Amino acid sequence: MDRPLVVFGNSEFAVWMARYFAEDAGRPPVAFTVHRRFLAAERIGAVPVRAFEDIATSLDPASHDIYVALEHGRNNLARAQVCDAATALGFSLASFVSPKAHVAASARIGPHTLVLEGATLQHGCSIGADTILRAGTFIGYDCRIGEHNYFGAQCFVDQHTRIGDFNTFGSGVRIAASRQIGDWNQIRAFQTLESDLRTPTLTHAGLRAEGRVYDRRAPRTAMPPPGPDRQG
Question: Does domain 5-93 have CATH number 3.40.640.10?
Fold first, then answer.
């Protein structure tokens, strides 16, 4: 039997993720949680919102799973930081793979991974921890995807490609076969990558947050807040 689920975030994306878990996996969240400075309401619908700083006193982390619903851009790093903090408290990280995704038997999916409807993972591919694959994304045969990545809807990654960590690919990005894509890239929607990216590359000033390429050698330091009253 699935354990009770907590969703981190109070943005529209967090509400969407709660609905996916509830309607497609039969796991309605028992609570939302955000950092205290982002508390904007006591409830989202009928579900209570709790301060993350107090979550371990109001819920038993050892008996709950958490999904961190922070989306893309700088939130790849923020998501990794919250995952670290949540597991340090004793939570287990939840994943969601849509029953309408096509996942080959030999594909490997890391923890805290989101795979939405219509996504295809071919044989021999692997998806690292804390990665988001939006609807319709295609990951080809024998691809290797690192950790803390975001793929927008309808991304296409051809066979034998290698991708590092903390990348954001906007919707419709196409990556040719056998490419080597490093870490900390932010690629705008509908671009085609036919060459390797061995140093961090920014092709869009924003995506959703202010454009910034992080030093891939930097530790997971505190992130600036994304907005006045929403987290995610």
Answer: no
What is the average per-residue pLDDT within 123-132?
A: 98
For 172, phi and psi rounded to 5 degrees?
A: 75, 5
Q: Do the domains 95-203 and 5-93 match in fold?
A: no
Let me know if 25 is exposed, middle or buried by CB neighbors in 10 A (0-12, 13-18, 19+): middle
Phi-psi label, residue 137: left if phi above 0, alpha if psi -120 to 50, beta otherwise: beta
Burial of 215 by CB count in 10 Å (0-12 exposed, 13-18 middle, 19+ buried)? exposed
Q: Can you tell me the distance from the alpha carbon of 97 to that of 39, in angstroms, rounded to the nearest whole number?
A: 29
Average pLDDT on 11-16 reads 96
User: Tokens 């927008």 map to which residue?
Assistant: 152
pLDDT at residue number 229: 65
Tokens at residue 7, please? 């969703």
CATH of domain 95-203: 2.160.10.10
> Positive or negative, the Cα torsion across 160, 166, 172, 173?
negative
pLDDT 10s digits, 162-183:
999 999 999 999 999 999 999 9
CA-to-CA dists, residue 142 to 35, 44, 124, 229, 232, angstroms: 39, 41, 4, 42, 32
Alpha-carbon torsion angle 102, 166, 225, 214, nearest 10: -160
Host H or E run for residue 221: none
DSSP secondary structure code for residue 197 in this structure: B
pLDDT computed for residue 139 by the predictor? 98
